[in-house]
Amino acid sequence: MIGTGGTITAEMVNGLWCPGKFTPHDLVNFIPELKDIASIITKSIYRIDSSNMQPAYWLTLAKALYENAGKYDGIVVTHGTDTMHYSASALSFLLQNLPIPVVLTGSQIPPHQTGTDVRRNLVDAVRVAAETNICEIVIVFSGKILRGNRAKKFREVEFEAYESVGMSPLGIIEHDIRLTGEHLHKGRLPLTLFDKIEKNVCILKITPGMNPRIISKLIEMGYKGIVLEGYGPGHLPIEENSLIPEIERAVKQNIPVIVGTQCALGSSWMCLYEVGKKALDAGAIPGYDMMCETVMTKLMWILGNFKNDMRTIKKLILKNISGEISSARSAKDKRIWKYDF
């Protein structure tokens, strides 16, 4: 069990919750039944509020997981809920061909508070790590097993904080663990660690009246890739305050522009209306059914580890690396449950 901090390790200090006050060792002692499920070795690498998580920390965590993956049947990572899905998504690209389950979990309520969800989430996470043949990065929360790069925090304080986007959960944990069978299995390829990442990638939410020059300013600030959260199925303004000239300039400077959707559930098709098609013609790349957070971490991984030419970038963005994108390339291809929790 590797600790990074978060509410699951928090204690009240001067009237404020302070993450990192409890170690993974403390959590195991707090829930003695964990020792009946598995023999647990603990380690802390961070003791932070997950709002302070940085891309460089993902590399450290990925390296720790890589170094320990061959020693254990599974690994649990305790993490704050605010950015857990960013970390899970990043790890799904930095670590490929995992031979064991790597399970991220946390809590909405600190461990010593009445009604805390720490016990349920930790017991569930350890069970998934010890008892299943899942070989990928997952988030276990409130009885659900979610693919790390398909999970999103939908609720601020409710126990069912996380939901799966674009696919059903990989499984549920009740008395038994029931899997759908869609999880990644152990393959023949060796575990691969990617130890580089391009941190200068951002998500920009499109709003009515937004000055298009913000894209040029981001490039001046050193950003190497931009993910636009478009309206509906990846729509952008093309008349007043048109983004098209800025997208064209960015692409000419070899700065990839990926367009996702602001909708919590949905895809970026971009070929349905002129306001999407013109962006495609300008060189924007559709994110299809990837969440914008996933597009961001995937682009960070691509720019940090591969040739930065547009052909390579587009090919890898649209390639399924770890279950983050489906083969659907039009609205007709979407699966019936795709937009359902």
Protein model, in words:
- The chain is an alpha/beta fold and 341 residues long.
- It folds into 2 domains: 2-193, L-asparaginase, N-terminal domain (Rossmann fold); 201-333, 3-Layer(aba) Sandwich (Rossmann fold).
- Helix content is 28%, strand content 20%.
- The protein contains 10 helices and 18 strands.
- It has helices spanning 24-30, 34-37, 55-68, 84-94, 118-131, 214-220, 244-252, 274-281, 292-305, 310-317; strands at residues 2-5, 11-13, 16-18, 43-48, 75-78, 95-96, 102-105, 137-141, 144-147, 151-153, 162-164, 171-173, 177-179, 192-193, 201-205, 225-230, 257-261, 285-286.
- An 8-stranded mixed sheet has the order 4-1-5-7-8-9-12-13, sandwiched between helices. The chain has a 4-stranded parallel sheet with strand order 15-16-17-18, sandwiched between helices.
- Helix 5 (118-131) links the parallel strand 7 (102-105) and strand 8.
- Helix 4 (84-94) runs parallel beside helix 9 (292-305).
- It is globular, with a radius of gyration of 20 Å.
Element order, helices and strands? EEEHHEHEHEEHEEEEEEEEHEHEHEHH
Text of the CATH class of the largest domain: Alpha Beta
The whole-number mean of residue pLDDT values reads 94
Which term fits the overall shape? Answer: globular
How many separate domains make up the residues? 2
Helical coverage, percent range: 25-40%
Instruction: Assign the CATH superfamily of the largest domain.
Output: L-asparaginase, N-terminal domain
* Helix-strand category: alpha/beta
Count of DSSP helices? 10
Please compute the radius of gyration using only Cα atoms.
20 Å
The largest sheet has its strands arranged as 4-1-5-7-8-9-12-13
**Total beta strands:** 18
As residue ranges, the low-confidence spans are 336-341
Q: What name is given to the CATH topology of the largest domain?
A: Rossmann fold
**End-to-end separation:** 29 Å
Strand content: 15-25%
Largest sheet: 8 strands, mixed
CATH architecture of the largest domain: 3-Layer(aba) Sandwich
